[in-house]
Each structure stands twice: as structure tokens, then as C-alpha cells.
Amino acid sequence: MRARKIRTQNLLYFARNERGGAMAELAILVPLLAVMLAAVSEFGRYFQNYTTMSKATRAAARYLSNHPFTDAEKAKAKNLVVCGKLTACASNERLIQGIEVAKVCIESTGSPIVETVTVRIPRDPADTCGATLDYTPIFNIGALLHTSFNFAPKISPRTTMRYIPSS
To answer: Which of 91, 115, 150, 156 has the highest Cβ tally under 10 A?
Structure first.
């Protein structure tokens, strides 16, 4: 009888004791918070890369709109998109990972007089000009979620400016 009373008291003690409850809640929330952190950081990195390439295509289009539309100037503009400067650079000096001069398209409208200049990175792999630029994530969000999800959108900015012929 006494043993049963002690057992009942111990069970009531454990039922009323809330120690460890916070640890259980933390164990439930940590995986969710880790996935949210990974997702937010990947979206942030993607938009940072897109903005960098958008500004680079804008700078190249601005450069070409004020300079003669020759092959040498086009090569300088492509270097401006890839490296952020008019001269070629090493692979570790590129603005973002994976960008190459061959992935940049430079097009114009108007013939024989150039009217507009467009600098772009193509989205469609079947495009005859350049190649697509895929975003490379740091985190594999699909593995965190135990799915086949892969966050790898294309980075494909485009800028068009009016050509100002030099006199």
C-alpha cells in the first residue's frame, strides 16, 4: 500500500513538473528555423546576384551607347559585365560565380545606323546568342526538406539603351 502511494506521488510530481518543456519545444522548432534561415539566405543571395548582373548589363549598355559600335568595344562591354572593368580578369575576380564572357549577348536594332543597344544574359538554353547563367545555391533546401526541390533559377537581366552616335 505504501509503495503504491509513493508511486502515485512520483507520478503526480512528474506530471506537475515542467522542467524540460522548453527543451522539447526547442527540439520541435529548430529544424523549422534552420529551413527558414536557409531559404531566406538563398533568396537573398539570388536577388543580390541578379541585382549585380542587372547593374553590370546596365553599365555595359551605357558604355556601348556612348562609344563606337565595333567588335573591340563590344568585347570591352562584355568584360564590363563579367568583371566590372573594361579589361579581362581572372576567374576569381568575376562579379558572380559562373559568369563568362561567352554568356553575354550584345544586340542592336537599326541598320545601317544603330538605334538601340541591348546587353543581356539569355534565359532560354535554345537561344543562339550566349548561354544561360544558373544560380548556384549554397544550401540544398531539398535535402533539408527531404524532397527533390532544387532552387536554381536562371539569372537573366537585360538592358536596352538608345545609341548616341559619336560625332
So the answer is: 156
d(CA 29, CA 40): 16
pLDDT of residue 152: 85
pLDDT < 50: residue spans in the chain: none
pTM: 0.81
Rounded Cα distance between 95 and 97, Å, is 7
Whether the link from the prior residue into 112 is cis, omega within 30° of 0, is yes
β-pair partners for 161: 117
Helix 71-83 and helix 21-65, axial crossing angle in degrees, nearest 10? 160
Calpha distance 46→153 (Å, rounded): 8
Give per-residue pLDDT as tens, 99-131: 999 999 999 998 888 899 999 999 988 888 888
The angle at the Cα of 90, spanning 124 to 159, to the nearest 5 degrees, equals 35
15's grid cell = 506530471
Using a 10 angstrom Cβ sphere, with 0-12 exposed, 13-18 middle and 19 or more buried, the burial of residue 119 is buried
